[in-house]
Amino acid sequence: MNILNIDYMVGLVPILLRYLPLTLAMAFAGMVLALALASALAVIRVLRIPGLNGATLLFISFFRGTPLLVQLFLFYYGLPQVLAFLTQINGVTATIMGLTLHFAAYMAESIRAAIIGVDRSQTEAALSIGMTNGQLMRRIVLPQATRVAVPTLMNYFIDMIKATSLAFTLGVTELMGATQKEAAGSFLYFEAFVTVALIYWMIVEGLAWLQRRLETRLNEAYRR
Amino acid sequence: MINVRHLIKRFDGNAVLDGIDLSIEQGEIIVVIGPSGTGKSTLLRCLNFLEKPDEGHITIGDLSVDAAHARRDEILALRRRTAFVFQNYALFANKTALENIAEGLIVVNRWPKKIAHSRAHEILTSIGLADKADAYPASLSGGQQQRVGIGRAMAAQADVILFDEPTSSLDPEWVEEVLALMKQLATERQTMLVVTHEMSFAQDVADRVIFMEGGRIVEQGPPSQLFQAPEDPRTRDFLRKVLVNQPINPLG
């Protein structure tokens, strides 16, 4: 076995980093959309809105019950065959769509748990001073639910960043796709994939650091 | 000023409130006593629709609500004319003592934040917690939390404050400071309806004591009459049991 080609790895980093913005953009877009969708699904479940509740359960069941890769292939290769307007869909859009729906299904449940975890008596207190349901959700329940949900939602975000690497199977040249191409040219597969693994790892560690700071801030009200 | 007629609340077919009639004058301090599970808390909770009564009429000032057909805006209006003090304080955990008191003024009454905060400061001062303005509930003692709870109710400028066993969750060392604050409110003639097991508070402060059992008002009258000369055998029986452990000064 050859000694690790450090020079190659160091040279590879700036090349791969050119594709980092696309990876992060897909992850951020997916996260924002998934958060919005998951919050809506969670509220539907908490309030048991008739009609929508059943549809929500089916949605969550399907997108949690099938692999993300299957869902991505379904959106990119499968659906355009039956839905004409989807023939123009590109790999990036299909990836964001898949990430959004897949992770929203998971996140809806943790947001729902966080909402129902907020002490019921605070809801009554808010009602007793004449707040409307919307006001008490916005001012009292959601801020506290956020604090509870942040650790698990950050977990999903980390998972989502790594899941963007599946876009490579839809022909998108993002971080993973770029690594594959570089490795195929140099035949230094080990070095290339160790390098990209380290890049993913550093991104996630950076996020974990942000998460710790965020949690310290959100916990301010609960120190004794 | 407050008039309750034939209020009925059923849980699973059982009448927890079985036709309550009650009138309260402005500035009157009423204490409700009675065995556990006789509907005392349910009565308070029905008055502001934390529980929806099944039948009856509630009138506060010029607002009259038919419980069976209460509209959302009527319920909201009723809640804005009443304030509630909870047994477990129920402070907003994400807000400071000051913000807990100012919250309703800002959100419900639409006061500018600055004015609401200065009003909340006045209230904190009057409840002796000016130095705790920026403290979150988790860092306050039980007694301090309940005083903030009362401060939040005071801020609402409601026609009546409903107290639901305000000292029952407190460690004994904190009970006095909360009762003292309630007495202070009583001397200011704040209209109060208090459910409590503190018999000496009832004796000292109440204008009228109501004894409830089985979802009905069994007997009511000034504390001197109700404590010294109860007419109904159920009242006598209840008082004999509780006053063994909690003697009250018969000279009041």
TrEMBL record, chain A:
The chain crosses the membrane at residues 20-44, 56-77, 83-106, 148-168, 188-210. Keywords: Amino-acid transport, Cell membrane, Membrane, Transmembrane, Transmembrane helix, Transport. Pfam families: BPD_transp_1 (PF00528). It is a multi-pass membrane protein. It is found in: Cell inner membrane; Cell membrane. The keyword Acyltransferase does not apply. Residues 20-211 form the ABC transmembrane type-1 domain. Belongs to the binding-protein-dependent transport system permease family. HisMQ subfamily. NCBIfam families: HEQRo_perm_3TM. PANTHER family: L-CYSTINE TRANSPORT SYSTEM PERMEASE PROTEIN TCYL, MEMBRANE COMPONENT OF AMINO ACID ABC TRANSPORTER. This is Amino acid ABC transporter permease. It comes from Halomonas llamarensis. The lineage of its organism: Bacteria, Pseudomonadati, Pseudomonadota, Gammaproteobacteria, Oceanospirillales.
UniProtKB/TrEMBL annotation, chain B:
Keywords: ATP-binding, Nucleotide-binding, Transport. GO terms for molecular function: ATP binding. It comes from Halomonas llamarensis. PANTHER family: AMINO ACID IMPORT ATP-BINDING PROTEIN (PTHR43166), HISTIDINE TRANSPORT ATP-BINDING PROTEIN HISP (PTHR43166:SF15). Residues 2-239 form the ABC transporter domain. The keyword Mitochondrion does not apply. Its main location: membrane. It is a peripheral membrane protein. Belongs to the ABC transporter superfamily. SMART domains: AAA. It is found in: Cell inner membrane. CDD domains: ABC_HisP_GlnQ. This is Amino acid ABC transporter ATP-binding protein.
